[in-house]
């Protein structure tokens, strides 16, 4: 008597076969990437980045080291500006306008958020935690009683809005904000379409280290993650 196979059993067998084939493809992709990751040294810092790092400092936040840079500029002014960078970059975003800002403000401060730049990368991060990092830096620098100006970009816009909310609600540890300038960023989730590079760096736990090891400046700059000072339109609160 001929054996009878149900359509459901055939479907299950086909699904198992497809899954095995899918994992085989994943392995064929990941094995050479892992080999490259283990044998290719990390990119060397440029002289400009070496200088940026040497001119900065760090402070401890909940057991992690956070990098920041601070300089004193305009004499006779008490204005302080805090610069919040975007994703997936660092405080070095501001290097080309650092000196012009020094000519306008008495104190210019920038930091690398947790997980970015020269700051530690201990775990996943939230916007709320990054806002607390900024508040901790302000306290560390003795600026808690100052009215500060905030200039933000991209990811930093969202952190700045959380800081604005805390300031408005008089939350403990909040900043006293004098002005807030938001440059282009994904303020409205329904109109925000991140690039593929940003999605992979944010959501992929095993591809992110590989990409950061392999990527270079020409590849990174081709992604155009820095959009200058236009887009959503700058606003001052």
UniProtKB/TrEMBL annotation:
Record-annotated AB hydrolase-1 domain positions: 80-170
GO biological process, one term: acylglycerol catabolic process
Presence of keyword Oxidoreductase: no
Transmembrane portions of the chain: 22-40
Pfam families named among the record's database cross-references: Abhydrolase_1
Keywords: Membrane, Transmembrane, Transmembrane helix
Any coiled-coil regions, as ranges: none
One GO cellular component term: membrane
Record bears the keyword Transmembrane: yes
Any one GO MF annotation of this record: monoacylglycerol lipase activity
Similarity comment: family membership: Belongs to the AB hydrolase superfamily.
Name of the protein in question: AB hydrolase-1 domain-containing protein
Gene, per the UniProt record: MEST
